[in-house]
Amino acid sequence: MRYDTPIFFQKIEHGAYDAATGNYGPQTISETRRMASVFDTGVDMMRLIYGRIEDGSVTAHIQNHYNRAFDRIRIGEKLYKVERARNLRHKQTFVLTEVQE
Q1: Contact, 8 vs 32, CB < 8 A?
Q2: Contact, 63 vs 88, CB < 8 A?
Q3: What are phi and psi of 67, to 5 degrees?
Q4: In angstroms, how far is the first alpha carbon of the chain from the final one?
Q5: How far apart are CA 21 and CA 85, in angstroms?
Q6: Maximum Cα interatomic distance, the chain, rounded to a whole number of Å
Q7: Mean pLDDT, range 55-73, rounded to an integer
Q8: Mean pLDDT, the chain, as a whole number?
Q9: Beta strands 28-40 and 57-63, pairing class
Q10: Residue 79, exposed/middle/buried by CB under 10 A (0-12, 13-18, 19+)?
Q11: Ramachandran quadrant class, 12 (left: phi over 0; alpha: psi -120 to 50; beta: rest)
């Protein structure tokens, strides 16, 4: 298994509320880079998780575990939400679905 694809764990920090204007400040996104093995999710796994075939679903494996809080994962220019995460002994597995921002 090759860990040759950079993935980015994104944490979104919402802007502070400004009582004078009633608006919120701009949000900031912090990213943490990890190398992963990324491939299409198998048909059997999609049926197990979604109950149907879902386009835009990938599976990512990283070495060791990522224990910090995050909101989504970016691979290239695409954003993904985590449908299922599984901690194994020396790696962590994520089943991801593409989301539109």
Answers
A1: yes
A2: no
A3: -100, -5
A4: 31
A5: 40
A6: 54
A7: 92
A8: 89
A9: antiparallel
A10: middle
A11: beta
> What pTM did the predictor assign?
0.83
Task: Give me the count of residues in the chain.
Answer: 101
Q: Is the pLDDT of residue 52 over 70?
A: no
Model confidence band, residue 31 (pLDDT cutoffs 50, 70, 90): very high
Tokens encoding 31: 């990213």
Other C-beta atoms closer than 10 Å to the C-beta of 97 total 18
Neighbour count for residue 34 (Cβ, 10 Å): 17
CB 62 within 8 A of CB 47: no
Distance CA 24, CA 34 (A): 31
Alpha carbon distance 64, 25 (integer Å): 36
Helix (H, G, I), strand (E, B) or coil at 38: strand
Distances (CA, A) of 57 to 6, 11, 99: 17, 21, 10
% of the chain with per-residue pLDDT over 90: 60
